[in-house]
Amino acid sequence: MDKIIIIFILLCIITCLIIYFDYIIKKYKRNKNTFTYNKYSKNKSEKALYYLYKALYKNSTPSANFNKLVKEAPFNKDGQKVVDYMSYIIDRSLFDKLIEKYKKKFKLNEFEEKSYLFNAYLGPSPRSTDSL
Hints:
Blueprint: H1 2-32, H2 44-58, H3 66-72, E1 89-91, H4 92-105, H5 110-122, E2 127-129
């Protein structure tokens, strides 16, 4: 009788773990579908990136609405939004001026500034050229 109770308890624990891990996996997949840069973010560098991307795409060739691009972007097989940012071009000097403008506007500390610059240069920014 004791063995049956122990087996039952172990089965309950295993079932709970399976349910918990299933919940974690679904939560992770659900979060991948969201675009993290938005004006409501509590993270200053993410907020600065949101406004930077809006300005970059507005001043790019062809001009585009960043919110509309993200909203209408298709999902890839991993559930991530795919913005065709290489189709847009912006002058390098304007690109650098906009980066500096939003870095100063949001008064980013050293850590936030590094994150901001990393994402600005390697994130979904339009292509930059020396001259258009």
